[in-house]
Automatic annotation (TrEMBL):
Pathway stated in the Swiss-Prot or TrEMBL entry: Carbohydrate metabolism; D-tagatose 6-phosphate degradation; D-glyceraldehyde 3-phosphate and glycerone phosphate from D-tagatose 6-phosphate: step 1/2
Membrane-spanning ranges: none
Entry keywords, A to Z: ATP-binding, Kinase, Lactose metabolism, Nucleotide-binding, Transferase
Gene: pfkB
Database matches in NCBIfam families: 1-PFK, pfkB
Superkingdom assignment: Bacteria
Gene Ontology biological process terms from the UniProt entry: carbohydrate catabolic process; D-tagatose 6-phosphate catabolic process; lactose metabolic process; small molecule metabolic process
The name this protein goes by in its record: Tagatose-6-phosphate kinase
Domain Carbohydrate kinase PfkB: 7-294
Family: Belongs to the carbohydrate kinase pfkB family.
Keyword hit for Membrane: no
Cross-referenced Pfam families: PfkB
PANTHER family per record: 1-PHOSPHOFRUCTOKINASE-RELATED (PTHR46566), ATP-DEPENDENT 6-PHOSPHOFRUCTOKINASE ISOZYME 2 (PTHR46566:SF2)
Entry function: Catalyzes the ATP-dependent phosphorylation of fructose-l-phosphate to fructose-l,6-bisphosphate.
Length: 313
């Protein structure tokens, strides 16, 4: 079973307008509304690959109900904790007359109390066990302690569950101390963790990955955008190529990668094939609009183009 956790979901609302300027009235030519948040995107991609997942986290108010409704329509199971306040709506205004000119408005999201964290912990513990994979991804509301992924990882590992964490900054730092099974930093996130600038060599990225392995993480996947990824665990390391695709939106490609890795592990797919699937799924995700998952048929086509280059032993 794969349980995704989204602490700060959102309704993503995209408005198309012409000649965007502040302080004036615009006629909106198109509106797209979607249930968003990194864990929710992971659940959607697992579902698109043919896997089963339960989406959890915090929701509030009528926006929260809309997200649940969207998941129901996709036949994705969910078990969110309801909190005071309203789940955020993030608005993207796309100026259709200027390519790539997007203005974003991101709400802070509702306040999460210690009691809410307690309720979520109890919910997750109900699902915990040796055959459960938990995926924690994305940022958390400002009111939540930065140790929250670390705290929950410790609790769930005690029950023999497998934990994946995709986070940055202090959230990642605290999570690493709890020794999650897998982390998936991108090159920026892993170099920032070590206070380095992003433009380091591949050898340095591998060394940084090894340092994180030494801290007790089982698998490190360093994603490198269109250059593919580096996979390290205690037995070996390899890298892959990136796949050439017609990219529409690379936002959420990391979520797609995490989804494929969780799906592959849950389905007992051999590790190298999981890596191939992760590269194909994430490249496929770049070809769709927004964070929409790729079709399984496309992933199965792209998987044939993934090459594995052993690094060590
Ligand atoms: N332009 C691209 N072409 C092909 N594949 C891509 C491209 N961008 C990303 N990918 C695939 O997606 C994976 C993850 O991308 P990236 O390293 O950008 O993740 P990320 O920064 O965590 O993304 P996000 O957090 O927005 O989901 C890459 O390892 C690669 O397989
Ligand atoms: Mg990411």
């Amino acid at each position: 079973m794969i349980v995704t956790v989204t602490m700060n979901p959102a309704i993503d609302k995209t408005l198309d307008v012409e000649n965007f300027t502040g302080g004036t009235i615009h006629r909106v030519t198109k509106v797209i509304q979607d249930a968003g948040g990194k864990g929710i995107n992971v659940s959607k991609t697992i579902h698109a690959l043919g896997g089963e997942t339960i989406a959890t986290g915090f929701l509030g108010g009528s926006s929260g109900r809309m997200i649940e409704h969207a998941l129901d329509e996709l036949h994705i199971e969910h078990q969110f904790v309801y909190i005071e306040g309203e789940t955020r709506t993030n608005v993207k205004v796309v100026d259709t007359t200027k390519k790539g000119f997007v203005t974003e408005f991101n709400e802070p999201g509702p306040t999460v109390t210690q009691r809410d964290i307690q309720t979520l912990t109890e919910t997750l513990e109900l699902y915990a066990g040796p055959s459960t994979i938990f995926v924690f991804s994305g940022s958390v509301p400002a009111s939540v302690d930065k140790d929250v992924y670390g705290f929950l990882t410790r609790k769930l590992r005690k029950r023999q569950s497998t934990v994946f964490v995709d986070a940055a900054g202090q959230l990642l730092e605290e999570a690493i101390k709890a020794k999650p099974f897998l982390i998936k930093p991108n090159a920026y996130e892993i170099t920032r963790h070590f206070n380095l600038s992003e433009d380091v060599s591949e050898e340095t990225l591998i060394d940084l990955g090894k340092e994180l392995l030494a801290k007790g993480v089982n698998t490190i996947v360093i994603s490198r955008g269109q250059e593919g990824a580096i996979f390290l665990d205690h037995q070996r390391a390899f890298k892959t190529n990136g796949i050439q695709v017609q990219a529409h939106s690379t936002v959420g490609s990391g979520d797609a990668m995490l989804a494929a890795l969780a799906y592959g592990l849950d389905a007992d797919i051999p590790y190298e094939d999981c890596a191939r699937l992760a590269i194909a799924t994430s490249a496929g995700a770049c070809t769709t609009l927004g964070t929409k998952p790729p079709a399984r048929e496309l992933v199965d086509e792209l998987v044939k183009d993934v090459l594995i280059y052993p690094l060590w032993p």
